């Protein structure tokens, strides 16, 4: 397959790498060329319909993966109209430009309000924030324009991301960096997640992209449901650092205040769908062991 990936962030780059490892071609499109991009790249403002048509024509892809738009939930809450244009408007423009090509849209657990402990594909979306509302409108736009595409809702994605800095770090990477500097990590003890390793997201995305009998909606969450506080403590334990470096913090007094209490996904379809059957989604303990193979501080007491 030759695949156009719209969005060059953490997930988009992982999907591109997975495609290339599998023998496919990946072309990445985004507003700015990422510093570490090793794949063919096209400049694209996905909110510009004419630019979307040009990008699809230039890339000449067989299929598309959409992982675009602002992902900072707090920013989206303050800029709901821009969030809607960046997600729903761009998805509509890209779906029209695709002219029937198969598309996988990466969506989010934030389409739910967090009232239930977890949600599978049968649950009715009720966004409680602007990010979730924008993503839900994007889902609806895609499925209204394409009967061959799939929305893949993904829970909190994590993994090693050494090229990123500041606010763009995923929760795992941010925890590791702070803990290694012996800095306290403020982690909500009332915000539940089902974290999923970025490599598993990439593997499922490629399978869904290639699969011919994939349903229009799939959920992908990790097998473990835990709070950010508990997850950060697992990371500290793996690094051989004191659990006291992790400071339990109410979600309402953290940067996650606008997130739903239960940002958790489960699936009744993933294991029964031919394209994704047999893909093992790893739990957080295995993920932490893979990402932190050293598992303990060095002989001089300094975390490696």
Could you walk me through the main structural features you see in this protein, from its secondary elements to its overall organization?
The structure is a single chain. This protein is an alpha/beta fold. It has 2 domains: 2-156 and 198-220, NAD(P)-binding Rossmann-like Domain (Rossmann fold, 3-Layer(aba) Sandwich), CATH 3.40.50; 158-193 and 224-264 and 280-291, UDP-galactose 4-epimerase, domain 1 (Alpha-Beta Complex). Helix content is 35%, strand content 17%. Helix 5 (130-145) links the parallel strand 5 and strand 6. Helix 6 crosses helix 8. Mean pLDDT is 93; it is low at 297-304. Pathway: Carbohydrate biosynthesis; dTDP-L-rhamnose biosynthesis. Belongs to the dTDP-4-dehydrorhamnose reductase family.
Measured by DSSP, the beta-strand proportion falls in 15-25%
- The share of residues in helices is 25-40%
The CATH class label of the largest domain is Alpha Beta
Task: Count every beta strand, where a strand is a DSSP E run of 2 or more residues.
Answer: 14
Helix/strand class:
alpha/beta
Radius of gyration: 19 Å
User: What form results from the Cα inertia axes?
Assistant: globular
Largest beta sheet: strand ordering: 3-2-1-4-5-6-11
Q: What is the total domain count?
A: 2
Poorly predicted spans = 297-304
> What profile does the largest beta sheet have?
7 strands, parallel
Q: Please work out how many helical segments DSSP would assign.
A: 9
Overall pLDDT score = 93
Question: Architecture of the largest domain, CATH level 2?
Answer: 3-Layer(aba) Sandwich
| H/E element sequence | EHEEHEHHEHEEHEEEHEEHEEH
CA-CA gap between termini: 39 Å
Instruction: From the 3D structure, determine the CATH topology of the largest domain.
Output: Rossmann fold
The CATH superfamily title of the largest domain: NAD(P)-binding Rossmann-like Domain
Family: Belongs to the dTDP-4-dehydrorhamnose reductase family.
Enzyme class: oxidoreductase
Pfam family, one: RmlD_sub_bind
Domain RmlD-like substrate binding: 1-289
